[in-house]
């Protein structure tokens, strides 16, 4: 991870000269981009909230970002903002009786969604649990690492954003940088988030992750098909999370989320909750369903079930 | 305009003059603040990765300090209540001192929040209308609003009283009294809102207990007044400012009651969790006993509890309360005890174990400590500067000159030396 053209500039980084200048001209100058910074830094600085952008402004923002990313990574990156499909509400099902805990979903997610490789950010966390004890979190093993999985006497429970219908995370955000879209996906505007991490304290599922440092992402591993609210490269100091692969699932024809596509045992099911004939609806109606932390009334759209 | 200019020049003279101890004190504060600024520049460069915070424990030392200081800010003003009830002689003066402490504490709070957020360059997103403040949904938005209102309120009162006194006018009671009275519910409000900020999170059982807000208030009534007592004693000793013993002893007595309530509420919480023994016990167990071999907070919280209980006894027993050695000791113990209990002892167990029951032991890094010390130093510097101007005004040493424009400084020294005090005593005696 050394010879990549990915050494993105930390927008908050200040060289010594600017720092001295900043000290001389007052603290406010410190937080602002240096005067010799390119115009796009200023455009980014004054950019409006995603939902307040007009069509024209949105186009400009997308063009600016795609140009920035393309230059930075030395390859053509598209940034789209495909809106929700009318009448669709996404739901996800995970078959606890099938999952073998191989963590392929974890890494498929990382490469699809351009998470930082160093430090590593994972949107999916797989826990190893005792069959005898059921979902007893105090016995969960997060860093299990045997030669082969599954191990006797254990079952596996992947946890990712539950796309709550009543999301506590969006409620607490002081600047409305995170919200629920029409199709039920909870998104973050990475250009609006101030990085206060209140949403991380509020999320009962550990689904939100913070860019503590500058994300390191090798250019050759970059997925160039990106969505503004989804997998575009994230700046430092903001929160990110699973979006049900918004860059895939909102297209028409759509594609399945990367985690569901890669699962070798078919433990993952994805579909439209509003469509009575969808597989996810069939599972909800016919299988034993388990809702994680049901008592919190977050009403997840990510459901666990036991198919066998 | 000219008046303001000469007033301003006068304050400059005041803050630049003082005894040796004053220079050393201010110099030390500025040095520490300077280190803090350097630490912060480093943090801006490398991101919050230089702290020990992680996704599992996403708030740490900064937010702990913030929480504690909100309490100090609130309680400083609450002293106004007893000052009125018991008709303490220098009510105006005590009120002003409380306001000034509150102002400095709120400044520290704002600085602690600023260093904690990932994108300080986007601060303007919090400004209503310009940005997109999520009011009234987000409790953090509430906190932004009430803290700023509280800061403004205190500034207005303190500046008004001082300004009027400087011009040798009697501050208009019909203006100050309502504002002073308003500052009391405002003080309670900032504290309650800050408690609710934690309290409203179903994801964090350690905070999700309705006893949290009352506990916040009770502990604030301990730490804030403890700081005030030490401040009173220092001011009384080193300046011409006079504060009655009775006032100080009364404050100490109030601390005893507040501490009793605080300990009781904590006990109630401990009982409920341990007796029920549900999964929600884990964070409290982590705090008091350690969990699965992780026990970083255990020695701290027990220190805090022992300090708090001893201080309770000191302030309860009239002999120790009135003995100024034990009194100061008690104040220091209360301050440290509450600092641990309401700071790290409150914030960290909210995250340990985390929502998926992973345990990550958080201990602040050197950078976090340096930046925090820098903020404390800056806050104390602000307080020193405010007092440096306020005390001479209240003493009558700094006021407008006979011409009504230029300023008059009777005595430039901040600390009056021992000899000067003795001389005064002699004078007083010879007069008798
Ligand atoms: S799982 Fe967490 S991040 Fe996802 S919607 Fe629910 S509260 Fe928000
Ligand atoms: S970290 Fe960002 S998204 Fe989360 S609450 Fe703060 S501003 Fe909102």
Compact summary:
Chain A has helices spanning 16-25, 28-31, 39-45, 55-73, 104-112, 168-172, 198-202, 246-249, 258-262, 279-286, and strands at residues 78-80, 90-95, 125-130, 154-159, 178-180, 186-188, 209-210, 225-227, 239-240, 268-272, 288-290, 302-306.
Structure commentary:
The complex is a heterodimer of chains A (308) and B (432). Chain A is α+β, with helices and mostly antiparallel strands. Chain A has helices at residues 16-25, 28-31, 39-45, 55-73, 104-112, 168-172, 198-202, 246-249, 258-262, 279-286, and strands spanning 78-80, 90-95, 125-130, 154-159, 178-180, 186-188, 209-210, 225-227, 239-240, 268-272, 288-290, 302-306. In chain A, the strands form 5 sheets. Chain A has a 4-stranded mixed sheet. In chain B, strands 1-2 form a two-stranded antiparallel ribbon. In chain B, β1 and β2 form a beta hairpin. In chain B, α5 packs antiparallel against α6, α5 packs antiparallel against α15 and α7 packs across α8 (212-238). The two termini of chain B are 45 Å apart. Classes of the chains: A alpha+beta (308), B mainly alpha (432). Chains A and B meet through α6, α7 and β7 of A and α2 and α6 of B. Bound molecules: iron/sulfur cluster (SF4) (2 copies). One iron/sulfur cluster binds at residues 161-164, 167-169, 186, 203, 205, 207-208, 241, 298 of chain A.
